[in-house]
Amino acid sequence: MDLQLEDRHALVTGASKGIGLAIVRVLVNEGVKVTATARRLSSELRDTGATFVAADLSIPKGPCRMVESALAEMPQLDILVNNAGGGILPDETTGDPFDVTENIWASTLALNFSAAVETTRAALPALVKTKGAVINISSDSARRPGGDPLAYSSAKAALNAFTRGLAERVAALGVRVNAVSPSLTRTNLTTGKDGYMAGVAAGLGMEHEALLRAMPKQNGMLTDSMIDPMEIARVVALLASPTMPSAIGGNWTIDAGATKFV
User: Fold this and answer.
1) Which residues of 208-220 are buried (b: 16+ CB within 10 A; e: fewer)?
2) How far apart are CA 78 and CA 100, in angstroms?
3) What are the pLDDT digits (tens) for 27-53?
4) What's the DSSP call for residue 176?
5) At what angle do helices 115-130 and 62-73 cross, to 10 degrees?
6) What share of the chain is helix, strand, coil (3-state, %, to 5)?
7) Is residue 16 within 8 Å of 38, Cβ to Cβ?
8) How would you label 238-253 residue by residue, b for 16+ Cβ within 10 Å and e otherwise?
9) pLDDT digits over 146-172, tens only?
10) Phi, psi of 85, rounded to the nearest 5 degrees
11) Where are the domains positioned within the chain?
């Protein structure tokens, strides 16, 4: 299927690894000219051929400066993918959601919510000119009461509300806004020895691999495996496509059936 993305320009944040890297690869394969941002350039991202802009979106004015740099490279902007997220996530095995530093809450909200808001604010004038698309990468944890880590799930819940509210306000300008909410995904955050889930496993006194095998079922997923980032990337490409003009204000779940309501 021709998604009609050839020669369009996309800005993808958090693009050096995981879901962001997969999104860059899929968009480049569709003929999109991609500007990819992250704190550091990974060898895998370099190999995609995307234009790289170094950025720290968690600091004041970081998102605005990043968008300015991207538009200086290519003024036309058709697609914005707000993927940057994660950060330093706390170990919540103690059961106390405030048994973490105030800085962790602030930085988690800044990276997983505020960065998307400020990046979109800066990019919106360019997106209005092209009648472009915004895709926010959320998480199914935002829909689960008591989702862990609490600061992260709270930030993603705010991102969901922002996505829907913004979609209502800019649809008349020709800009489509949607979110994508994956469940447990095969990234360094989950599988890496220095990732969040490795710390959770240690706190529970479990082997990391044993926890990873158990997590899909514990999350309510109807499969025994984590989600491949490329699945998420393919949905992003579809939502970015002008062939989907009625896809507006949605939250597309890629969660192997973990969401239990309709």
Assistant:
1) beebbeebbeebe
2) 39
3) 999 999 999 999 999 999 999 999 999
4) E
5) 30
6) 45, 15, 40
7) yes
8) bbbbeebeebbebbbb
9) 666 888 899 999 999 999 999 999 999
10) -175, -170
11) 9-182+228-253, 186-226
Architecture of the domain made up of 9-182+228-253: 3-Layer(aba) Sandwich (3.40)
**Tokens 């507006």 belong to which residue?**
248
Terminal Cα distance for the chain, rounded: 28
- Separation between Cα atoms, residue 250 and residue 247, nearest integer Å: 7
Residue 190's nearest CA partner among 171, 167, 216, 166 is: 216
Which tokens belong to 160? 């969901």
Tokens representing 40 are 């550091």
Enumerate the active-site residues.
152
User: How many whole angstroms separate alpha carbon 128 and alpha carbon 130?
Assistant: 5
DSSP type of residue 208: H
Distance, CA of 172 to CA of 174 (rounded, Å):
5
Q: Which residues contact 39 (CB under 8 A, 6 or more apart)?
A: 16, 54, 55, 56
The pTM is what? 0.91
From CA 40, how far away is CA 49, in angstroms rounded? 15
Q: Could you count the other beta carbons within 10 Å of the beta carbon of residue 137?
A: 25
